[in-house]
């Protein structure tokens, strides 16, 4: 299968800044108590459904994968950037990290207890997001949990909005529109959080976390 140009561009861009990115964001969860709480709830729901492996898609340098492991999950990371995966393996040698594409995961059908997609769909053009969601639904076991994070559009009149990102073009989503796409792929929304930007944030976008369950 031919690789989309957007994926190649994103991979090369993150390869180029991998070390800087890892240094900037390695402690980012420490100042995000709401997100830590939601990750804890996600972990509890995965364990309540029997556990199983959890994929952190777009894992970057692996710090969130390690956080999930600390919550008792059998977590591993997948990222399109080989440089990011190399840094993750160096920082967390006891965990598994793989180079891969969210649109073509090398994971067996129905084998995962959970999937985390933390800001990992933002560089995917909107037309290419449904195949990614289809892959997530394919690899999740019945009752498996998905936690997906993304920036919100300015209002319900905007289904998606492109914006300039420091690495590559990124996209914001209407929470209702993305939740509907999840339903189309058999992933039923269970909860959502919307975090307002701080006055000092460079981008005044709401952050959305959708928690969904595979039927």
TrEMBL record:
One of its GO terms (molecular function) is methyltransferase activity. Keywords: Methyltransferase, Transferase. GO terms for biological process: antibiotic biosynthetic process; methylation. This is SAM-dependent methyltransferase. It comes from the Bacteria. CDD domains: AdoMet_MTases (cd02440). Residues 54-144 form the Methyltransferase domain. The keyword Methyltransferase applies. The keyword Methyltransferase applies.
